[in-house]
């Protein structure tokens, strides 16, 4: 990359990196940022599906099971080691009342503390029968992941959106190349899988540091004890929250491994991949939405803003979920091995629809969590997450043994539904906005019926899926269009109204 480009990235740090002057309008800014984040997410998902095909063709179910267990374990450890400071970096870094240098220094100070504690507890990982042999690589992977997360979120907090997106694209490319070299070329299996993450995260950290001039923002002279305590007070409640989300989304794989075996868990892990397509909808939106909700936290129309956006967002989620369920069989056969190499990954299509439903409610729970971030009520994230984690553990114990992978998938879906119901009731105590609950219920029933139809053999299931998808489209497409028109129409007025004041 040229020196001129590097200078341009650094110059755009705190004023926005949107590639041109945008209208001062919250709806337009949200939509523009969503499209920008979408570029990186679309690319990441395309590469992600290539990697799924790679893993299921060059790794056995047992190896893939172990690899996903390592990945999920690191996802659990990162918020513990960082004290969930990534969320504090976004919340405090975007607040103009705080010095960004103090925010970044405080976050890294917390990370160094967490690393010290983790080093004392790290020998416990070596004792695990499934991932113990990869303990050293897991530690290195975890540390690089922690530093990269803090760095990337700080770049985003400074509104360097294009740098954030470019880093994600380069990291994805690096991971793909490393996987091809280590897994296909060198036949390193799980070791190659972990090394790919270590190298891609390490190079990403170097890239962000150089292009974002991060060394200028981290210095002991910027340490502010009062700010550190305030950030820690915000983020510390998110540590158990992330643990509870990990219990809901990932612990079921440990239950499956211990109760019915690693082969079944490999199939279950493969079934999880297609539902992550919904994350293409939610991640690119949520990254933009999180910034908008914080920026607009003091506006009088915040409740209406939430109402309009959630209406379009939930409709789009249900519509995308219905489309995925309708295509679940052909997509599963395309993305996984057909069984000719002795594996059973193709069986994943049976469990995928339930996991798609669980992903819908997980995405809506994530949207509602922005209320807690905006209002600095991170405690509520904790206690509402309990309504997902506790039922999930209980149902895993009850359902997996008699129903196998079906039981694990059902436990996950029901847990997210419970959390969404509680969180929807709670958040409206802090930001009032209307939610069309009957429409949510009807949409959920349609997805359940489509899930049943997938399991029907013969031509009948195709007809049912098409009919149910059409009903879902009728139910949601109009809502998406109406809401988008309302947003765009409302979006034009403030911009024009501000023109006289700009003279």
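Sequence proposed for the structure above (503 residues):
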């Amino acid at each position: 990359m040229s020196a001129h480009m590097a200078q341009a990235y650094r110059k755009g740090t705190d004023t926005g990196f949107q590639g041109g002057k945008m209208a001062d309008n919250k709806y337009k800014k949200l939509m523009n940022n969503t499209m920008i984040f979408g570029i990186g997410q679309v690319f990441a998902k395309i590469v992600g599906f290539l990697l799924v095909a790679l893993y299921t063709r060059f790794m056995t179910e047992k190896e893939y099971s172990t690899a996903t267990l390592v990945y999920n374990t690191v996802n659990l450890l990162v918020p513990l080691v960082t004290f969930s400071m990534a969320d504090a970096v976004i919340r405090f870094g975007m607040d103009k009342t705080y010095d960004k240098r103090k925010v970044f220094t405080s976050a890294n100070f917390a990370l160094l503390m967490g690393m010290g504690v983790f080093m004392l507890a790290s020998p416990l990982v070596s004792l695990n029968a499934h991932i113990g042999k990869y303990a050293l690589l897991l530690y290195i992977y975890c540390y690089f992941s922690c530093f990269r997360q803090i760095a990337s979120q700080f770049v985003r907090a400074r509104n360097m959106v294009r740098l954030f997106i470019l880093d994600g694209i380069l990291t994805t490319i690096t991971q793909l190349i490393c996987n091809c070299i280590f897994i296909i070329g060198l036949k390193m299996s799980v070791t190659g899988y972990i090394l790919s993450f270590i190298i891609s995260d390490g190079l990403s950290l170097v890239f962000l540091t150089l292009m974002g001039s991060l060394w200028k923002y981290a210095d002991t002279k910027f340490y502010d004890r009062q700010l550190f305590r305030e950030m820690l007070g915000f983020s510390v409640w998110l540590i158990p929250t992330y643990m509870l989300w990990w219990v809901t989304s990932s612990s079921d794989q440990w239950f499956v491994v211990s109760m019915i075996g690693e082969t079944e868990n490999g199939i279950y892990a493969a079934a999880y991949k297609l539902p992550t397509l919904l994350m293409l909808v939610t991640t690119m939106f949520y990254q933009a939405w999180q910034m908008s909700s914080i920026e607009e936290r003091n506006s009088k129309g915040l409740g209406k803003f939430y109402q309009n956006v959630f209406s379009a967002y939930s409709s789009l989620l249900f519509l995308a979920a219905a489309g995925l369920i309708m295509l679940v069989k052909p997509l599963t056969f395309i993305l996984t091995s057909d069984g000719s190499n002795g594996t059973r990954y193709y069986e994943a299509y049976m469990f995928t629809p339930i996991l798609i439903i669980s992903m819908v409610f997980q995405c809506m729970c994530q949207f509602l969590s922005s209320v807690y971030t905006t209002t600095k009520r991170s405690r509520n994230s904790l206690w509402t997450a309990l309504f997902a984690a506790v039922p999930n553990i209980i149902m895993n114990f009850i359902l997996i043994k008699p129903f196998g992978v079906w039981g694990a998938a059902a436990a996950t879906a029901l847990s997210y539904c419970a959390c969404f119901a509680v969180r929807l009731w709670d958040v409206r105590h802090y930001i009032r906005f209307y939610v069309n609950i009957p429409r949510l219920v009807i949409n959920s029933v349609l997805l359940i019926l489509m899930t049943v139809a997938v399991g029907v053999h013969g031509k009948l299931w195709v007809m049912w899926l098409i009919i149910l998808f059409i009903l879902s489209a009728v139910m949601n497409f109009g809502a998406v269009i109406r809401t988008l028109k309302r947003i765009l129409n409302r979006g034009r007025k403030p911009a024009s109204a501000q023109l006289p004041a700009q003279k």
